[in-house]
Structure formats: structure tokens, C-alpha cells
Amino acid sequence: MTKETVRLGAVQETLLIPLYGRALDAKARRPVLGDVEAPRMVERIDYDFAKFRGPSLGGSVLRSAIFDGWVRRFLAEHPDGTVVELGAGLGTRSHRLDNGRARWFDLDLPDTVELRRRFLTDSARTTTLAASVLDTDWFERIAESGGPYFFVSEAVLLYFDEEQVRAVVRALADRFPGADLSFDTGGGTMMRSQDHNPVFKAVDARMTWTCDDPKALESWGLRLRESRTFATPQPEVARTWPWRHRYGVPLLARLVPPAVNTYRMNLFTLEAAR
User: Rounded to 5 degrees, what are φ and ψ at 137?
Assistant: First the structure.
């Protein structure tokens, strides 16, 4: 088998962490996501995935499951809606959750998109866009689908500074008021522990944006609807997790609460400027 060479920027390289996490999950006796594409991609990519070790691999899988829960809920309410992945990486949400009716856009930087297109093919309802989350010239392409819209940005905004994140949120709110937006936030304890995390020791990039209270982001033009941790997933999501996650993570949250509770997955509604 010919291996695919990876040429990615420092931040883009981190997309290989959740890919490997999903590949390991797929091989588990009771997988959380059951991502059949991830093991195939890991096998074909010329990269030392074995250097990724530690609980962050499993955490990336649980994180995706929580975001999946919100996307599934959105599609149940709006089966013809549009889901936009901001920083899609090698994620397979548009393949795993497709209902046969929704419109999907997977957006990422050109080097990531070039790699993505070697493994994942667009369809009549799925479009890959090579663009930066920080730009707005792709907005009109999204708007052509007509909505309603669900924007999801998983493990992406954390690598920007606060002003950049605020700019992304405000631009989306001004163009797509009323849309759903979900993204993760990390508190100070999490940010200060990156150099001790076995996974992050294997890459050069570091997360920079610190947010201790997602509720405080409402001043940006957001309305916080839900904020979850690994220990408090949506009930319908928790029921699908193997017992080792369903009961083990809440126990860990009680034993070392800062390690679990300062990282949050959040669901917001975008609100136009008043």
C-alpha cells in the first residue's frame, strides 16, 4: 500500500490527534463513535501515530460524541437544514450523521483540504471548502443553501487569540442571526497543563485562548443554551457510552475536578447586534 505523505502546518497537525482517537475507538469492543473511515485513513497516512498517548485520545472521542448529539438534535428538528463544520480536519461527521436530506459544508485551510480530499469525497449535498475560519468570503456560499444553520467548531477556536475568536463570532452572528453555534472552551487550569499532556508533548502547537466561563461570552452576541463537560454529556448521548466512560468520567470529575470541569463543550445561538 502506498502511504500518503502529510504536509501540514503546526496547528493543522493537531487534527491527527482526534483522527487517531477515532481509529482506536473504532477497534474497541464497544466503540463510542464507530467511525469506520478513521482506521482506513490512519493506515494510509505516513505518520508516527504511536507517539500520541494518554487520556486525551479518548477525550477527543467523547468530545465528538457530545457535538454529535447536538447535530443529531438539530437534524431531527430541521432535516433539510445546513451543517457547517468550521475546521473540519479529517473529521467524518458529515459522513457519519448524514440523514439523506441535509446540506453539509466542511471548511478548512488549503493544506488540510488537500489531505482531506485524498480520503473523503464530496457528494451532491456535501461540499468541502478551502478557506480560513477567520475570513468571511465563504459566507455567501453557505447562505445559498437557505438554512436553517448549525455551525460546529471542534478543537479549533482554542488555537486563536481572544480577539480573533470574538471576530469570528461577531461575523457569524451578523450574517447568520438565529443560527446555532457550538464550540469548545478551555479554562486556565487546562491551558496551563498542556506541556504536561502526553499528546501535546508530541506536537508543537499550543492552545492559546482561555475561557473560564462560557456564560461570559454572551456579551459577544451569543446566547448560551447548554454547556457540557465529559462528566455531564447530554442524557441521550450518555446512554450510548460504554460503562467505563458513563461511570468512570464522573468519578474522575469528583476526584480531580479541575482536570475535567475546566474543559467545556458549548451550544450557543447567534444573536444579531442590538
Answer: -70, -10
Contact 75, 125 (CB under 8 A): no
Q: How do strand 149-153 and strand 82-86 relate by DSSP bridges? A: parallel
The pLDDT tens digits of the residues spanning 9-48 come to 999 999 999 999 999 999 999 999 999 999 999 999 999 9
Which alpha helices (H) appear in the chain, and where do they start and end? 10-13, 16-26, 37-44, 55-77, 93-96, 110-116, 139-143, 162-175, 188-192, 235-238, 243-246, 248-255, 257-261
Residue in 64, 87, 62 with CA at minimum distance from that of residue 12 = 87
Region of 135 (left: φ > 0; alpha: ψ -120 to 50; beta: rest) is: beta
Question: Cell numbers of 165, please?
Answer: 475568536
pLDDT in tens, 241-252: 988 888 788 777
Single-letter amino acid, residue 38: A
